[in-house]
Design brief:
The structure is a single chain. The protein is α/β, with parallel strands linked by helices. It has a single domain (2-9, 22-293), classed as 3-Layer(aba) Sandwich (Arginase, Chain A), CATH 3.40.800.20. 42% of the residues lie in helices and 14% in strands. The two termini are 13 Å apart. This is Acetoin utilization protein AcuC. GO terms for molecular function: histone deacetylase activity; hydrolase activity. One of its GO terms (biological process) is epigenetic regulation of gene expression. Belongs to the histone deacetylase family.
């Protein structure tokens, strides 16, 4: 079976009332054990993080962590368990990227922390796992064109900032325009959607965006497959059905297959009021990836 990486083994200390959906990492891992070899994500080395993040920021996290104001901006209370989990989540994306380079498809059942900037944390994101994985591959000699397809309901502001001056990386973000973050960082192609858009309008907006992005002829694709676009999500503001989500994912995987590019799938957001729907939606994405691309 194809490997996939999980942070389900990582404890995260949070108050009972906190909306961060730590339940879903274990739930998705369990839901996919029949089709994937689910492995604990390894922690990413600090010197690998330093290929992308600024040294002063990493040193601060190691020595003192985040102050209360900084933790408020992240939306999570600072703890050593938060740091450890972030290290494993980024390590899972790097491991998945290496799998993709070797076998065409890499899967991290975590990651997609696209709000982290080179020098600070925001929005549930300490490290930008995709930016770190790209930096590592570059350090190992990979010089191909990279496409980041970010279909989380929130704009990938940190990812856009990381790659703003990098002509070898194209960033696409399709998101709810009035959603967090209020200040968007311009990427190569940003598609901001009105609140409450459903399947038909969403897919109509997505199709030309994917066509434009893949016209760039990527040689490696990262897919942030957030399911916070579903109706009923606490933070998503959009109203896709589970069937609409499947159509979204199939469209992405179809373009990847035509491009004949390796693909890395990271989890992204999902905060549905129905916990079972959050888990089912994430698991559906990975099953569809295997169905479309698992035989490469």
């Amino acid at each position: 079976m194809r490997p996939a990486y999980t942070t389900a083994h990582c404890e995260l200390e949070l108050p009972e009332y906190h909306p961060f959906p730590k339940y879903k990492y274990h739930g998705v891992a369990e839901a996919l054990r029949d089709v994937l070899e689910v492995r604990p994500a390894p922690p990413i080395p600090w010197d690998t993080l330093a290929l992308a993040h600024e040294a002063a920021y990493l040193q601060k996290l190691r020595r003192e962590g985040l102050c209360r104001a900084e933790a408020h901006k992240v939306g999570l209370p600072w703890s050593q368990s938060l740091l450890a989990r972030a290290l494993h989540a980024a390590g899972g994306t790097l491991a998945a990227a290496l799998d993709a380079m070797e076998g065409g498809l890499g899967l991290n059942l975590a990651g997609g922390t696209h709000h982290a900037f080179p020098d600070h944390a925001e929005g549930y994101s300490l490290f930008n796992d995709v930016a770190v994985a790209v930096a590592y591959l570059r350090a190992q000699g990979f010089r191909g064109r990279v496409l980041v397809v970010d279909l989380d309901a929130h704009q990938g502001n940190g990812t856009a900032a990381f790659f703003r001056d990098d002509p070898s990386v194209f960033t696409l973000s399709v998101h709810a325009e009035r959603n967090y973050p209020l200040k968007k960082e311009p990427g190569d192609l940003d598609v901001g959607l009105a609140d409450a858009i459903g399947d038909v309008d969403y897919l109509a907006a997505l199709a030309p965006a994917l066509e434009m992005a893949f016209a760039w002829r990527p040689e490696l694709v990262f897919y942030n497959a957030g399911v916070d676009v579903l109706a009923g999500d606490r933070f998503g503001r959009l109203r896709l059905s589970l069937e609409g989500l499947a159509a979204r994912d199939r469209e992405v995987f179809s373009w990847v297959r035509k491009a004949q590019a390796p693909l890395v799938v990271v989890m992204g957001g999902g905060y549905n009021r129905d916990r079972h729907l959050t888990v089912a939606a994430h698991a559906q994405t990975y099953r569809l990836a295997l169905e479309a691309l698992g035989r490469r």
